[in-house]
Backbone:
């Protein structure tokens, strides 16, 4: 039986090497060289792979997302019926995302947008001293990435709150849940961070109504998915000076078209979906573990719940 890899060619080679280093007996097929369809038992794939194509493999038993998010695997037509999907929860992914969020929290907190603009204009002007203990950070999503980022930000001395579907309890984080919890958190948030999965419930959550509920002058950091943000509403809030700046790593569509207003917006900082990149050598052990579990009929780790979409 064989494992099908489908992602960018240079990544496929790295995944193949990492998987074989852990289990030399694995038979690896790199898409589109799949070999006989009935030999494929597991697929490790990313957003470029057409889920409809996976219906070709009669003995497929497991689909592994090459990243933390699974929205790309669940959108229509979705995985073949009855086939479980697992995702990555990986220390290198959580570390990178924590760094990216902290980088942008510090950028906004330390008035970096203003100082860059001043440097361009050759202006020597000291701005008011920022006070860490008074800059409140609110995080949408307290899962693997959100809870880790919350801990990193709290360790620097920022007051941190977070919002999840179910009530959580985390050290140094004021935890909120549900619709009322969201409202309460937004009212006390100076830097809003989005680390939610993209699901039917969370698509478009960062819209005019939500942005109106954070205090004037708040910042937005989105490291989750472009589909969380209603772009026209964010641009309007930026242009009205209600939102003072946005750091965006994810967009819809990707790559972001060259004519999109974000590219040249003076108060938008962009990265090309690079906040947290899967490192195959780090993530491969859980894929091998799940292949063994699948073969042995054991419970899978990091299993996606189709009813919630994450
Ligand atoms: P996760 O562990 O599944 O955590 C998701 C969190 O969101 C959980 O706290 C969950 O609440 C909360 N949540 C989900 N739906 C909600 C809702 N309707 N209302 C309130 N809270 C809700 O996911 P993760 O591993 O942290 O990853 C989060 C996302 O980051 C991924 O799905 C992916 O899209 C994105 N990502 C981006 C990059 C990048 O490079 N930009 C890299 C990796 C991941 P509960 O705790 O109550 O379940
Ligand atoms: C990247 O976006 C991921 O979901 O891992």
Residues:
């Amino acid at each position: 039986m064989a494992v099908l890899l489908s992602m960018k060619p240079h990544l496929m080679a790295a995944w193949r090497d990492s998987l074989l280093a852990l289990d030399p007996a694995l038979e690896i097929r790199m898409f589109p060289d799949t070999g006989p369809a009935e030999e494929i038992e597991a697929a490790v794939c990313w957003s470029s792979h057409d889920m409809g194509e996976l219906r070709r493999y009669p003995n497929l038993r497991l689909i592994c997302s090459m990243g933390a998010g699974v929205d790309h695997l669940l959108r229509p037509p979705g995985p073949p019926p009855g086939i479980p999907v697992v995702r990555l929860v990986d220390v290198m992914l959580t570390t990178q995302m924590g760094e990216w969020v902290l980088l942008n929290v510090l950028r906004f907190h330390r008035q970096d947008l203003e100082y860059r603009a001043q440097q361009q204009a050759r202006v020597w002007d000291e701005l008011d001293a920022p006070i860490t203990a008074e800059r409140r950070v609110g995080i949408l999503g307290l899962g693997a990435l959100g809870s880790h980022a919350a801990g990193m930000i709290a360790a620097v001395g920022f007051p941190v709150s977070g919002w999840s579907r179910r009530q959580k309890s985390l050290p140094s984080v004021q935890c909120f849940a549900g619709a009322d919890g969201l409202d309460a958190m937004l009212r006390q948030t100076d830097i809003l961070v989005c680390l939610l999965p993209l699901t039917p419930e969370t698509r478009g959550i960062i819209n005019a109504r939500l942005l109106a509920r954070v205090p004037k002058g708040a910042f937005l950091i989105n490291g989750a998915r472009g589909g969380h943000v209603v772009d026209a509403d964010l641009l309007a809030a930026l242009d009205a000076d209600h939102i003072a700046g946005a750091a965006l790593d994810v967009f819809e569509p990707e790559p972001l078209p060259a004519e999109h207003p974000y590219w040249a917006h003076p108060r938008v900082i962009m990265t090309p979906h690079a906040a947290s990149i899967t490192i195959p050598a780090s993530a491969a052990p859980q894929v091998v573990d799940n292949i063994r579990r699948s073969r042995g009929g054991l419970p899978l780790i990091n299993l996606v719940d189709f009813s919630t979409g994450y």
